Amino acid sequence: QSTLDDCIRYAWEHNPGFKNIRIDVKEARTDYVAAMGKFLPHVSVQAEVGRHIGRSVDPDTNGYTADSYNQGTIGMDITLSLFEGFARINRLRYTHWTKKEKEWDHLAKQNDLAYQVAEAYYKAALDKKLSELAAEQLRLGERYLKQTETFVELGLKSLSDLTGGRKHVIKEMCSESVRIEKNSQMSFLYLKEIVE
Fold first, then answer.
1. Which of 28, 83, 117, 123 could form a disulfide with 102 if both were Cys (CB 3.0 to 4.6 A apart)?
2. Those residues with Cβ within 8 angstroms of residue 61's Cβ, 6 or more apart along the chain or in another chain
């Protein structure tokens, strides 16, 4: 038997639709961080190492040589874009508001899911209590029928009291009890569906 808070927390952690919304929020945050990164300089480093064998151009004299030699180069580029027609600023603003939208959507879906779970939880609890009450009513009806049968045997009541509808009433109470029990099971299954 779980509490309502346990059911809501479980739904927030395991509901597939809600998991997708959390992924959307993470994506929006990542896009925002990437847009902020566009304001930082771009740095690239290159290194090359090579060995020349046989006839080749000597880099010191620019003449041909038949000697083998090693050659290496190292390079580094730093690029900082100063102006791109406000594209980076506009992109940062766009990703900021998209991130905010996804966060608000996340909160709205979180509240919607909590409401659906609460509604299903209370309906399941109500149907369970109704099922218990119907079972108790059935036991009372059967007890009343046995009491009436005893009174008829003792001559305290007439046979018409016994056959006058008591068996019909108990039959109706049985069918109502079964209907309420089915509703209780359906409510529980609906709650389970929402939570998972």
1. 28
2. none
% helix, strand, coil for the chain, step of 5: 70, 15, 15
Length reported for the chain:
196
Q: What is the pLDDT along the chain (196 residues), one digit of tens a residue?
A: 688 899 889 888 988 888 999 999 999 999 999 998 888 888 889 998 887 777 777 777 878 777 777 778 899 888 888 777 788 889 999 999 999 999 999 999 999 999 999 998 888 888 888 888 877 877 887 788 788 778 878 887 777 666 665 666 666 777 777 777 788 888 888 888 887 7
pTM of the model: 0.62
